[in-house]
Specification:
alpha/beta, 5-stranded parallel beta sheet, two-stranded antiparallel ribbon, 5 helices, 7 strands, about 20% strand, globular
Length: about 120
C-alpha cells in the first residue's frame, strides 16, 4: 500500500521555514547551481541512499523540494517509510520562483547572487 504524503504550497513552506523547519533540495548539482532557494540544503536524490540521515526538519517535518514536485514526492514517501517526517513542496522550484520567493542564481561570472 503506497504511503500517503503531505503536500504543502510555497506560502505554507515559507511560514514553516520561518518557524524553524528545514528545506532540502533533492535535485542534482547542476540544477542547484542554476537556481535554488537560499535556505535550502542540497541532498541530491542520486545520493539519497547514502545521505538520507542528514535530512532532519527540526521540530517540524522536513520540507522536500525538486524541480516540479515529482522527485520530491518520491523522496518524501521513502523518508516517511524510514520514519523521517517530511512534506512535499507542491510545484517545486517552478512554483517557488513563480511565487516571487527569493532565489540564488549565478551572475555572469558564475558567482551566486540573491534575487527577490
Amino acid at each position: 500500500m503506497p504511503t500517503e504524503i503531505t503536500e504543502i504550497d510555497v506560502a505554507e513552506a515559507r511560514r514553516r521555514l520561518e518557524s524553524g523547519a528545514r528545506l532540502f533540495d533533492v535535485r542534482e548539482q547542476g540544477e542547484w547551481d542554476d537556481v535554488h532557494a537560499p535556505e535550502a540544503t542540497l541532498v541530491p536524490m542520486s545520493e539519497l541512499v547514502a545521505r538520507w540521515k542528514e535530512i532532519d526538519g527540526g521540530d517540524e517535518p522536513a520540507i522536500i523540494i525538486c524541480h516540479s514536485g515529482g522527485r520530491s514526492a518520491r523522496v518524501v514517501a521513502a523518508l516517511e517509510q524510514s520514519g523521517v517526517p517530511a512534506v512535499n513542496l507542491t510545484g517545486g522550484m517552478v512554483a517557488w520562483e513563480q511565487s516571487g520567493a527569493p532565489v540564488v542564481r549565478p551572475d555572469a561570472q558564475g558567482e551566486p547572487r540573491h534575487e527577490h
